[in-house]
Amino acid sequence: MSKKKLSKGQLRRMRANHQKRLQRKNEAPEVELENDSLGPEQTGRVISRFGQHVDIEIDTAEVIRCNIRRTIQSLVTGDNVIVRIAQEQTSTIAGVVEAVEPRTSSLTRPDLYDGVKIIAANIDQILIVTSVVPAFSTQIIDRYLVAAEDTGIKPVIVLNKVDLLDEETRELLTEALDVYQKLGYQVFEVSSQTAEGVERVKQLLDDKTSIFVGQSGVGKSSLINALMPDADLLTGEVSENSGLGQHTTTAAKLLHLEGSGDLIDSPGVREFALWHLPPEKVAWGFVEFRDYLGTCKFRDCKHLDDPGCALQVAFEEGKIDEERFDNFHRIIASLDEQRHARQFRSGSDE
Ligand SMILES: Nc1nc2c(ncn2[C@@H]2O[C@H](COP(=O)(O)OP(=O)(O)OP(=O)(O)O)[C@@H](O)[C@H]2O)c(=O)[nH]1
Ligand SMILES: [Zn+2]
């Protein structure tokens, strides 16, 4: 049986509907606030972004939902902004973001369409949380350090769950972490369970914007809860999935800590170091390698057993820790594996 032919009228209606849909897509879904209904400019900070809208905390600590001027190219959690607030509240949209201050730092992730996507801005420090459950791994710490070094944001290492350690294990871990202290990284040993060391972390967070990263299960949520004025807030916010739709669970959100510090959190923020790293950035991410980079005999030196490798010489002279050098090679090897897997996948798609 042949397909039923559409009448001219039906076709016209279909086309008209299609046009309407396209138009709707291109139109900003925002309620435009009239310029003369807006108050004077004031400063604020992005708490969270939801598509065309954004929640801004202003100096009175009030959070207001705003539209975004079309001239603004990029606006993410943590951005400092200039806003104008409607003098009379006529809708849920209470103001307009007029401008964004230059960022001191930004956290990005690879994006299929745009190359990279910025997920948060103006972060002062990255707390790399690790523990003994899941197993302690300097390789994972190094991987997070490399990613942190690439952002230019200061990383700090936090060993959580020290309450689970017997004396001997604790000594071993302290020794392993000593390598990082010697490289200039701050190291904290804490337990979110017994609150050991938590006060020192609290002081570290004061007056700064921080993010917590690390493997699933190391105790990031537990630690954050121990540092929040209202312990239930974080879990409540993250699991909320109503009203504003699914963005609530994925959008990075800025939260206030018990002292004067802020925290930006989201699943994406927590996992940022697990995304692909270009191999040339890995060596740079090992801070003690920097003096030697560019001094190997061959420009494309893999720093393995290449002749005339300056890193190899430095290692043999005891200037580079063995475990760090091993971890570097392991990270490079895992990047190669990832690349092969991607090539294999894209090849089999054809
Ligand atoms: N013994 C002990 N257990 C802890 C401590 N901190 C967290 N835990 C436990 O570790 C488990 C994981 O903690 P979470 O806070 O959910 O870990 P997370 O890093 O937020 O995990 P994701 O949300 O998956 O990223 C929970 O069962 C916690 O109770 C601690 O200091 N000591
Ligand atoms: Zn080399």
Topology (elements, then pairings):
Elements: H1 8-26, E1 38-50, E2 53-58, E3 63-68, E4 80-86, E5 95-100, E6 106-111, E7 115-121, E8 125-130, H2 138-151, E9 154-159, H3 167-182, E10 187-189, H4 198-205, E11 209-213, H5 220-227, H6 233-239, H7 247-250, E12 253-256, E13 262-265, H8 267-270, H9 279-285, H10 310-316, H11 322-349
Parallel strand pairs: 3-5, 8-9, 8-11, 9-10, 11-13
Antiparallel strand pairs: 1-2, 1-4, 2-3, 4-5, 6-7, 12-13
Helix pairs in contact: 2-9, 2-11
The structure holds guanosine-5'-triphosphate (GTP) and zinc ion.
Architecture overview:
- The structure is a single chain.
- With about 350 residues, the protein is of the alpha/beta class.
- It has eleven helices and 13 strands.
- Helix 2 (about 140-150) crosses helix 11.
- Mean pLDDT is about 85; it is low at about 235-250.
- Guanosine-5'-triphosphate (GTP) binds next to helix 5.
- Monomer. Associates with 30S ribosomal subunit, binds 16S rRNA.
- Its cofactor is Zn(2+).
- InterPro entries: G_CP_dom, NA-bd_OB-fold, P-loop_NTPase, Ribosome_biogen_GTPase_RsgA, RsgA_GTPase_dom.
